[in-house]
Write a structure and sequence with these properties.
Number of domains of chain B: 2
Largest sheet of chain B: 6 strands, antiparallel
CATH superfamily of the largest domain in chain B: Probable tRNA modification gtpase trme, domain 1
Largest interface: A-B, 58 and 54 residues
Largest sheet of chain A: 7 strands, mixed
Oligomer: heterodimer
Strand content of chain A: 25-35%
Radius of gyration of chain A: 38 Å
Number of helices of chain B: 3
Shape of chain B: globular
Strand content of chain B: 35-45%
CATH topology of the largest domain in chain A: FAD/NAD(P)-binding domain
Number of domains of chain A: 7
Chain lengths: 978, 180
């Protein structure tokens, strides 16, 4: 119910929402949690294992129970925390994790058979019969497991990733964070100030303390207003710093539009920030912990601080009557705040017998809550007094405080371990756990408001000192400075179950059982019981669990230690981390200058690395790609075909040592390549295997342009730069990629020269421009590069023009080719043409292949050193028994062949150990009227004419083939030299 | 005689305005890479000074004189924009068609860069140059008076515009949400 006007609620802005299709209302400024409490909703979900009814427990992001689905159209966001989701009008909220309804959950049967479902039951129960696992156990467990459901619709929401840089990052905006931010900001450095909540101020917004003579939340607002006006400060609310990483890098999630009703499509839901900070002040505060006692998980059992937070900030309470149970003075604050707002304190139960607290309500000293009754909400609390007598107190809610745990999480993200502090009964961080990060305020165990403020100033100064920045003295305002008074109490002995991890249903009994079964290490216990896993991440359960473990194993808490806190601090949606990568955002696209024309011609585009290239150019009368492909092959073999080859890498190499450099990176000789000539070359890696192949043209003395394959353009450039900078730094040679400068087209076929002569200004003939020649030519005012090279085996050219003329050039080449009876061809035809000629691509040179395997060992110059030479000549790489490049033709012409098939001897069975090699490329050859293949066959060069079995195990085919030379057509190369 | 038609990387794209931000294509510039030959860096600097009143800039810097700009783009690599450069003691490579150049201008341009570029662009002074990434694309970024000049390989033009404009729209929407 709404007890009073919450200090941060806008009561003039009512908002409607539904929870499990039932309509409720709240106000602007509410979270879903406070709005549900205002509407007296006690049960908001079901626990993970036993499906016990669960209510809200906390008022922050550590909430273990309040996880819901939010549905919007066909989108569902599961596991939204009620405590952090701001109320938006018309929000559709659904409880999760049940089979049936929230009230009647079929899986609550688990609770009745809980003795059989104790820790480790998975490991013990589902062992036999073995075949039941896949058929019965796994599907059943999967059905029962998991929190929340996805809609399975494509996520149409927009998310972002971003980078930020600062001198000082301040994490958390309670009293310590505000003072740290002010200190850093006043020193003039760049400050990023992150707050997880929708408003700055931390606990000051939930408490009744005065700061500097005014209510804490008013003081906080004034300071934040001051900071937001400063140019060197970036205040980021709704931003959770989720991880600390190397080099002062922090991950953070900013919630942009979860609280916005009508969203602009361009508005991101969340932004995943990577913040690089020279220094950071971590002022994330602390989290109140519970105490384990029988049925402490009933809906209506809160942490004491959450109860007063809901009251002070939102003006809401789950009932008019409360019981408070604690072991420290802070719990008493809840009783006082509730009492002063007219909530009846039915009992204040303090486990300390010597406490001096006094109030106008029943106080039980040295007493403990020993049971809670009320399945769907607290009805009665059982209090056992110091003398053993039992008092039953009727109430609708119970506030529990077992003390406060400093929020050490981020400090542990680089594997540091916090230290136990006996006086505070808590783990606190030790210096240097994260380089450059100072911990301030409650996160370091300073719990008074004044102490936090001092700590904030001090820690910020430490950071400024490290940065060598001078700073002014920041005065610390007057505020509450009560000491921490606590007597540890972890669990109350009982016969029933008392919860430690509320989300994962881990009880004291489970921890004890884990220890009894010798899972005594805290890390083993965690994994055996699932304590602190999944949504909890150790926030609520860790310290209590290990204290219980310490107790049952007879060890001290420091000796027992903690488990490791890992990033992220709160869950980060995959969509935020993968922002910009949806759909085409997955990778950038590279388009040639002929791209649009190819698309206009309805050519299906295929990806080649990041490039897009036309597969084939269909004609209306053609019913399959093969028809188009065969026609295009015919252009090249019979008249003239045009294909855009701009995607091949082109590297400009200049300098006095350019030819020596080429000699060093290619296996064959280049120093004697004359200006105006082109040569084919093969490059090896240091390990003697083939890296890439291509051509090098000598433009003029000391100036070359080399080509690489499309796939390896980047790799070759990197390799050459490595060679230049590290292996031959004394060479006078420069490298520059010119891939994008030139739009290059292959003009191939018997009529190619005729076509070229229609394009260029000067005439070429068989005498002045022979095979493997290069020259600069003119096309009007445009200077173009003409190469006589061939990847089809035909008389062919490649002509390169500056890219601005690429599209225009492509159009001219297309119409000229069509006039000569030819036309455009795509990748399919290009592939057929090169397979018919036995030319290799990266299908063949896949990184495991040597020059020897390709039959190119004679190209390896014996007169010079080159990269990979020594390794390539190792016996193992020139062994006759290696798989060697061969051609294959089916014995029956109609038979099909598939790339990736394996070779076997005719009589051998098609099993792994009998394999004799594999096919790399296949094509239908219109010229030979059969399928043909290239592949690597064991000792292949000596097996010409032999019949082998080609088996594709995936497609279940078996084809008998004849081994032949990999060059199927024009073995002498007459056509190319025509 | 064949007349080839020239087309700029973004085909003369009109400036795209979103909120306070403007993305415009920069065209019609000669662009050459200058890579001084071995031990010729000082000589090249002198030659450029004589020819264009410019010298080789320091790492991460650019210099402007009249219509010419020279920027550092990597180890021993400089990009010259403006007049034609020839006959100096360096490898000169024509790159006039290799790069798509746009300017992202506006007071919120750094917000867009925050989303695409992993470098602290806000600490750049006017004229500073970095080589980094724009999304997944290799890029040259130069700080200008109004914002940033961005260069990517020509083939990436479409992705460049798509990614930058997407972030421009997002920034405008976020500003609207914050009442800016």
């Amino acid at each position: 119910m709404r007890v009073k006007e919450g200090r941060l609620i806008n009561s003039s802005a009512p908002l409607k929402f539904t929870f499990d299709d039932k309509e409720f209302s709240g106000y602007e400024g509410d979270t879903l949690a406070s709005a549900l409490i205002a509407n007296d909703v006690k049960v908001i979900g079901r626990s993970f294992k036993y499906h016990r009814p669960r209510g809200l427990m906390t008022d922050g992001s550590q909430e273990p129970n309040g996880l819901v689905e939010i549905r919007d159209g066909n989108q569902t966001t599961p596991n939204v925390r009620l405590t952090t989701q701001e109320l938006v009008s018309d929000l559709k909220v659904y409880s999760q994790n049940y089979w049936g309804t929230l009230k009647w959950d079929f899986l609550e049967l688990n609770d009745l058979i809980s003795p059989f479902l104790s820790a480790g039951f998975y490991y013990k129960t589902f062992m036999w019969p073995k075949k039941f696992w896949e058929g019965l156990y796994e599907p059943s467990i999967r059905r029962a497991a998991g929190l929340g459901r996805l809609s399975m619709a494509n996520n149409s929401d927009y998310y972002e990733k971003a980078y930020a840089f600062c001198d000082v990052l301040v994490i958390g905006s309670g009293p310590a964070g505000i003072m740290a931010a002010l200190t850093a900001a006043n020193a003039g450095v760049q400050v990023i100030f992150c707050e997880e909540d929708s408003i700055f101020g931390g606990r000051l917004n939930s408490e009744n303390y005065d700061v500097d003579g005014k209510p804490g939340h008013i003081w906080a607002k004034e300071k934040i207003d001051q900071l937001s006006q400063m140019e060197n400060v970036r205040c980021m609310s709704r931003t959770t710093v989720t991880g600390a990483y190397d080099g002062g890098t922090y991950g953070a999630v900013e919630r942009i539009s979860h609280h916005v009703k009508v969203k602009d499509d361009a508005l991101p839901v969340e932004i995943f920030w990577r913040i690089v900070a020279k220094g950071a002040v971590y002022a994330a505060g602390s989290m109140e912990r519970s105490i384990a006692f029988q049925n402490n998980d009933r809906p209506g059992v809160f942490t004491a601080s959450a109860m007063r937070g809901y009251l002070n900030r939102y003006g809401v309470s789950l009932g008019e009557k409360a019981v408070i149970f604690g072991n420290n003075n802070d719990a008493f604050r809840t009783a006082k705040d509730l009492h002063s707002s007219g909530i009846e304190i039915a009992a204040y139960v303090d486990s300390r017998s010597d406490t001096t607290i006094q109030g106008d309500f029943p106080i039980f000293k040295g007493a403990m809550v020993t049971n809670v009754r009320g399945r769907m909400g607290v009805k009665e609390v059982e209090v056992t007094e110091a003398n053993g007598s039992i008092v039953k107190v009727e109430t609708g809610m119970l506030g529990v405080s077992g003390g406060w745990n400093p929020t050490v999480h981020l400090t542990c993200h680089m594997n540091g371990k916090p230290e136990w502090n006996d006086q505070l009964a808590a783990f606190i961080p030790v210096p240097g756990m994260i380089p450059g990060l100072e911990v301030a305020g409650a996160a370091t165990g300073v719990f008074s408001t004044k102490g936090c403020m001092k700590s904030g100033v001090f820690r910020a100064k430490e950071i400024l000192k490290n940065l060598g920045v001078s700073y002014k003295t920041t005065s610390v305002p007057e505020a509450e400075s009560d000491p921490t008074v606590i007597v540890p109490l972890w669990s109350v002995p009982c016969k029933g179950r008392s919860w430690i991890d509320f989300q994962n249903d881990v009880t004291v009994k489970d921890i004890k059982q884990s220890a009894e079964e010798n899972f005594k290490s805290v890390e083993h216990m965690k994994r055996y019981t699932t304590q602190g896993m999944a949504p909890d991440q150790g926030k609520n359960s860790n310290v209590v669990a290990l204290a219980v473990l310490a107790d049952v194993t007879g060890r001290a808490i420091p000796e027992t230690g903690t488990t490791t806190f890992r990033p992220p601090y709160t869950p980060v949606s995959i969509a935020a981390m993968g922002a910009f990568a949806q759909g085409a955002g997955f990778a950038p696209q590279r388009f040639t200058t002929s791209h649009q024309l190819s698309v206009d011609l309805e050519a299906p585009m295929i990806e080649a690395g990041l490039w897009y290239r036309p597969s084939y150019f269909p004609k209306k009368e053609e019913s399959s790609w093969r028809e188009s492909c065969d026609r295009e092959v015919g252009y090249v073999r019979d008249s003239v075909g045009i294909v855009d080859v701009s995607t091949l890498g082109k590297i400009d190499i200049q300098g006095q040592d350019a030819s020596a450099f080429l000699d060093f990176v290619y296996i064959n000789n280049f120093s004697k390549l004359a200006p105006g000539k082109v040569r084919y070359g093969l490059m090896l890696r240091e390990d003697g295997h083939v890296m890439d192949d291509g051509t090098a043209a000598c433009i003029k003395e000391n100036h070359y342009v080399i080509t690489t394959t499309t796939a390896s353009a980047g790799e070759v450039m990197t390799h050459l730069e490595f060679v230049q900078q590290c292996l031959v730094p004394h060479f006078d040679v420069t490298l520059m990629s010119v891939t994008e400068q030139w739009a290059q087209f292959a003009v191939a076929g018997p009529k190619s020269r005729e076509l070229i002569n229609q394009i260029i200004d000067e005439e070429i003939n068989s005498d002045n421009f022979t095979y493997m020649a290069y020259k600069e030519v003119s096309i009007g005012e445009v200077k173009a590069r003409l190469f006589r090279i061939s990847f089809s085996g035909e008389h062919a050219y490649e002509i390169a023009v500056p890219s601005r003329f690429g599209e225009s050039m492509f159009k001219h080449l297309k119409s000229s080719a069509e006039n000569l009876g030819g036309g455009l061809y795509g990748m399919e035809a290009l592939n057929v043409l090169r397979i018919e000629k036995g030319f290799i691509t990266h299908a063949e040179i896949d990184g495991r292949i040597t020059a020897f395997d390709l039959g190119m060992q004679k190209m390896m110059s014996s007169k010079k050193d080159f990269i990979g030479k020594t390794a390539a000549l190792r016996p193992g790489l020139i062994d006759q028994d290696r798989d060697q490049l061969v051609g294959l033709i089916p014995v029956t012409a109609e038979d099909k062949l598939f790339a990736g098939s394996y070779f076997f001897d005719i009589d051998a069975s098609a099993v792994r150990v009998a394999q004799q090699g594999y096919s790399t490329s296949v094509a239908y050859s219109p010229e030979l009227n059969t399928m043909i293949a290239l592949g690597f066959l064991r000792n292949g060069k000596t097996r010409m004419g032999e019949k082998i079995k080609v088996v594709d195990h995936l497609r279940n085919t078996e084809t008998i083939c004849k081994v032949c030379d990999p060059v199927f057509l024009d073995k002498e190369g007459v056509r190319a030299r025509a | 005689m064949l007349k080839l038609i020239s087309k700029s990387p973004l085909n003369g794209m009109k400036p795209i305005k979103v909120g306070s931000l403007v993305l415009s294509e920069i065209t019609s510039v000669n662009m050459f890479t200058i890579q001084p030959f071995k031990n010729k860096t000082k000589t090249v600097s002198k030659e450029l000074k004589k020819l264009f009143h410019l010298e080789l800039p320091g790492d991460g810097k650019s210099l402007v004189a009249k219509d010419n700009t020279i920027m550092w783009i990597g180890m021993g690599q400089y990009l010259f924009l403006g007049n034609k450069v020839e006959s100096i003691s360096a490898a000169i490579t024509d790159q006039s068609d290799a790069w798509t150049v746009v300017e992202l201008a506006g007071i919120d341009s750094s917000d867009v860069m925050d989303r695409l570029c992993p470098v602290d662009v806000r600490s750049m002074e006017v004229g500073d140059v970095i080589r980094s990434l724009l999304g997944h694309m290799a890029t040259i970024v130069r700080k200008t008076d109004l914002g940033y000049e961005l260069m990517v390989f020509r083939s990436f033009s479409k992705t460049l515009v798509h990614e930058v404009v997407g972030c421009m729209k997002s920034i405008a929407a976020q500003n609207k949400l914050r009442g800016l």
